[in-house]
Design goal:
Helix content is 29%, strand content 31%. It is an alpha+beta fold. The protein folds into two domains: 1-31, no CATH class; 34-105, Immunoglobulin-like. Strand 1 and strand 2 form a beta hairpin. The longest helix has 14 residues, at 18-31. The protein is globular, with a radius of gyration of 16 Å.
Amino acid sequence: MRIIKNRMFQRRKRSDSILTWYKNLARVRKTYPALTEGELVPVNESDPCVMSFVRKTKDQEILIAVNLSEEEIKFEYKYESMILSSVDHEDGKLKPLEASIFLLK
């Protein structure tokens, strides 16, 4: 039992763990009202490899982009800052299975 508890403790400390990702998502959701109150506007619905949409209020616009493929995809969008990404994000592309959240305004 002690080994299991120790492994769980070690996973909590890792920045790339799924637990850390969900904690960060919860923090982002609380910080940006557009994610909970905003209108949902689909972006580029014709691309089967990328699910992307904007959540917006009168004061804020947030872009969520998810690469659903196992290949890197060109993805260019102007944004003020990146809020959160599931991987080390590089401008102009989405890595395989990357999910990223961007502040547009």
